[in-house]
Write a structure and sequence with these properties.
Helix content: 25-40%
Distance between the termini: 43 Å
Number of helices: 9
Radius of gyration: 19 Å
Oligomer: single chain
Shape: globular
Order of helices and strands: EEEHEEEHHEEEEHHHHHH
C-alpha cells in the first residue's frame, strides 16, 4: 500500500484497516518526533468532510478516557487526515481474546466504570457516540481505557425519524436498527452489550445470519448470560437486563445512574472469582 503524504507528519506503518472504510497509520510529528495515530477514510477525497465533522466533535471533548485529537490536515491532493494521540495498548476485543474470552469482576468493573464516565461526559456535550463497541476501546498496560472513533457520532438534537440505520449490528439498539430518533439511551444500550461481551465473551443475540440476529434484537430476545457463563456473578444480571431493555424508557436514564447501580451491586472486596 502506498503511504500517503501528510503535511507535518511521517507515516511509518499501518496500525489497522477498518473494513475498507478507514485505515489507521502509525506516524510521527516531524517537528517533535512524537508518535501519533493518523486516520484516513475511503474514498479519500470524498470523505474529507466526514473527517472534518469528526474533528469538530473532538474539539468539544476533553476527558482522560477519550483519545485526544491533535490535528486535522489536508494534503495537496485534497485528502483529509485526523491526527490522534497514539495510545499503546490493545483493543478490548483483543484483550479478551488474549484472556480466553472472559473478564473477571476486578477488571470488568473498573473498565465499565471508566467507559460510563467517558460517555457521560460526551452526553453532557450533547454528543452521541453511536458506535460504542470493544474494538473502539483501547486498554493500556495500567488497565486505563481510551474511547475512540467518533466517525458516525451525531449531535443529540439532529435526529429525525426515518434516519438510515448505521452502526455495528451486535451493538445496535432496536431504535437504531429501525432508523428512529436516537438519544443517549442508544449509547447506554451499546454499553450494556459491551459489558455482556466482557462478562461472557459472547454476543447477547443469537443469529445464524444478519437477518435472524436483527429479528432477535428488534424483539428483545437476548440470551441469558448464564447460558454462556454459568458462574457469572449474579449481581450483574439486573444491570444487563436493564441496560439491554428493548424500549429506551426502561433502560438507565443516564450513564451516572448505571454507574451508581453497578457500584452498589458489584462489591469487589467480597467477590471471589471462579476461573
Amino acid at each position: 500500500m502506498e503511504k500517503p503524504l501528510v503535511p507535518g507528519y511521517i507515516i511509518e506503518r499501518v496500525i489497522s484497516s477498518r473494513g475498507g472504510s478507514a485505515v489507521i497509520y502509525f506516524g510521527r510529528d516531524i517537528s517533535e518526533w512524537k508518535p501519533v495515530a493518523i486516520k484516513q477514510l475511503y474514498p479519500h477525497m470524498i470523505r474529507t468532510l466526514d473527517l472534518l465533522r469528526e474533528y469538530e466533535f473532538y474539539q468539544c471533548i476533553s476527558h482522560p478516557n477519550i483519545t485526544r485529537c491533535l490535528d486535522f490536515v489536508v494534503n495537496q491532493r485534497g485528502e483529509g487526515f485526523l491526527v490522534m494521540e497514539y495510545v499503546k495498548g490493545m483493543t478490548l476485543n483483543e484483550y479478551q481474546n488474549h484472556r480466553v474470552g472472559l473478564m473477571p469482576d476486578d477488571v470488568a468493573k473498573p473498565v465499565i466504570m471508566q467507559l460510563l464516565d467517558a460517555v457521560g461526559h460526551i452526553h453532557k456535550k450533547n454528543i452521541l457516540h453511536l458506535d460504542i463497541k470493544r474494538n473502539n476501546i483501547i486498554l493500556d498496560d495500567n488497565m486505563k481505557i481510551k474511547l475512540l472513533d467518533f466517525g458516525i457520532s451525531r449531535w443529540q438534537n439532529e435526529f429525525q425519524t426515518n434516519w438510515p440505520a448505521f452502526g455495528t449490528l451486535d451493538y445496535m439498539s432496536p431504535e437504531q436498527l429501525q432508523g428512529l430518533n436516537l438519544d443517549k439511551y442508544t449509547d447506554i444500550y451499546a454499553i450494556g452489550v459491551t459489558l455482556y461481551f466482557m462478562l461472557t465473551g459472547k454476543s447477547p443475540f443469537y443469529g445464524e445470519n444478519a437477518k435472524m440476529k436483527k429479528g432477535n434484537i428488534l424483539n428483545g430476545n437476548y440470551i441469558s448470560p448464564k447460558e454462556h457463563y454459568p458462574y457469572i456473578n449474579e449481581n450483574w444480571l439486573p444491570v444487563l437486563e436493564r441496560a439491554l431493555s428493548w424500549h429506551y424508557k426502561y433502560r438507565y436514564q443516564s450513564c451516572e445512574e448505571m454507574a451508581y447501580d453497578i457500584d452498589k451491586r458489584i462489591n469487589l472486596k467480597k467477590r471471589k472469582h471462579i476461573f
